[in-house]
Amino acid sequence: MEQPSCASKKFFGMNTEIECKLFGEHAKEAMQAIQLELHLLENLWSRYLPSSDIGKINTAAGKEFVTVAPETFALLSQAKSFSKLSEGVFNVMVGPLVDLWDYKHAVRPPTRSMVKKVLPLTDPDDLVLTADSSRVGLRKLGQSIDVGGIAKGCATDYCVGILDAYGISSAFINIGGNVVVRGTKPEGNPWKVGIRHPRKPDSMLGVLDACNTSIVTSGDYERFFIGPKGKRWHHILDSTTGYPVQSAFSSVTVVYGNSLVADALSTLLFMSGIETGLEILSRFPGAEAVFADSRLCVLITPNLVSKFHIAEPMELSVVKRKEKNEKHNKKKE
After folding, report:
1. What is the pLDDT, as a whole number, of residue 6?
2. Is 267 within any annotated ligand binding site?
3. Is 125 labelled a binding residue?
């Protein structure tokens, strides 16, 4: 049997490492289109580019509204939806906090007075969208948007659209940990997607068998620093306190057909805890999750039982949305 044409490439974009493996008659053309699309989206959404839509919105904060591209307006509309769903827990208005914590250079947390000063700038209701004119504005001087919790997922969905356009039926795309797989591997086997161990940098927590879905992980190991007293300060910030969220988890992986939703849900579930997280997950039929708690015990939703292969001996629990008096169904690996 003749093997399909393959295009495979690793490159840097959207401020992260990207890997693509495409199989099909038009794989090379699709690869070029994906690279171009990601470059265009980065130029729209990067908060570090003053000429981007996000850069312009941030610069104009408290002054004027900015007309943005349809892709940017759609992205921010989705961000507003997830903010409303989570009652403000998911919040792209954390830009001032992200700048304050400065994870690339920080060696100690900011002072309480510094945190208190920027908290009034993070109100999610201060992001204003006018649908009739595709204009976006921030109400106060000093406010800024950071779409890091949703942009890679949205970009991955645009890549899926390109796969459709070029008839690519087998593909693996990884945008900085946001993974989407199309179909199966060319030989017919499911794709194997590793979930990184949150405390062992070069090890896997487990492996998922996956076809036609997205797999996105949020965790406290992605960007962090160790403070003077040995405390880990991670990058997922709680805009109600100004500090890294005190999560019950080390990582949360969401498996879902839409990558933007999986991206937002992985962050939201990391911040919400198991009870609220499972309730939120139940609002998205077909969404599944792998939770690694602070003790590195692993919890998975039922439909992943046959698809998740734990990498080393540890406690594994199967969880679902619980009714009253319903208990976790535990098993040992």
Report:
1. 94
2. yes
3. no
